[in-house]
Amino acid sequence: MTDVRIEPWREDDLDLLRRLNTPEIRAHTGGPETEEQVVARHGRYVRFGDTGQGRMYAVVLPDGARVGSVGYWEREWRDQRVYELGWAILPGWQGRGLATAAVRAAVAVARARRTHRYAHAYPSVDNAPSNAVCRKAGFTLLGETEFEFPPGHLMRSNDWRIDLTA
């Protein structure tokens, strides 16, 4: 199943973010956040759309069910401004191609902005499903790197890049 769309993150997506904040989903990103951290993250996601620096989206099925998140945001990486992409899909919907379709859709939006040449994703080297999403979505593996996430925690990640001008 890859019939999915992305919709800008909205105020009533807080419950979705809470459902995405589980040990299973956050295993490769430092573990679940506190309720206060989730509420703060939600506020950033809602306001993010107005900044021009990126966007967060809900992953939405044809029936309207909101089953994940995907987004892109600006960051400095190796002396260059790039977009970083991140995503998460609820466990009951994983393995159906939804993350790949959502990432492709987010890349298309970032590409249309014509702001940065490259977008990167930094999944943990141990996160086989997210690394597969990068490969299937057309990213090129540049190699392993140390990546700080969450803040204060270094993790071994793969650096995947896609050319937004291609």
Percent helix, as a range, is 25-40%
Secondary-structure element sequence?
EHHEEEHEHEE
Globular, elongated, flat, extended or rod-shaped: what is the shape? globular
Q: Which structural class do the helices and strands define?
A: alpha+beta
* Mean pLDDT, all residues: 93
List segments where confidence is low: pLDDT < 50 over at least 5 consecutive residues: none
Count of DSSP-assigned helices: 4
Radius of gyration over all CA atoms, rounded? 15 Å
Spatial strand order of the main sheet: 1-2-3-4-5-7-6
Tell me the distance between the termini. 27 Å
Largest sheet report: 7 strands, mixed
Number of strands: 7
Strand content: 25-35%
Structure description:
A seven-stranded mixed beta sheet has the order 1-2-3-4-5-7-6, with helices on both faces. The chain has four helices and seven strands; from the N terminus they run βααβββαβαββ. With 166 residues, it is α+β, with helices and mostly antiparallel strands. The model has no long low-confidence stretch (mean pLDDT 93). The protein has helices at residues 14-19, 35-48, 98-113, 128-136, and strands at residues 5-8, 54-60, 66-76, 81-89, 118-121, 140-148, 154-163. The relative contact order is 0.16. A hairpin with a 5-residue loop joins β2 (54-60) and β3 (66-76).
Brief overview:
Helices cover 27% and strands 33% of the residues. With 166 residues, it is an alpha+beta fold.
Provide the descriptors you would attach to this structure in a database record.
166 residues; 7 strands; alpha+beta; 33% strand
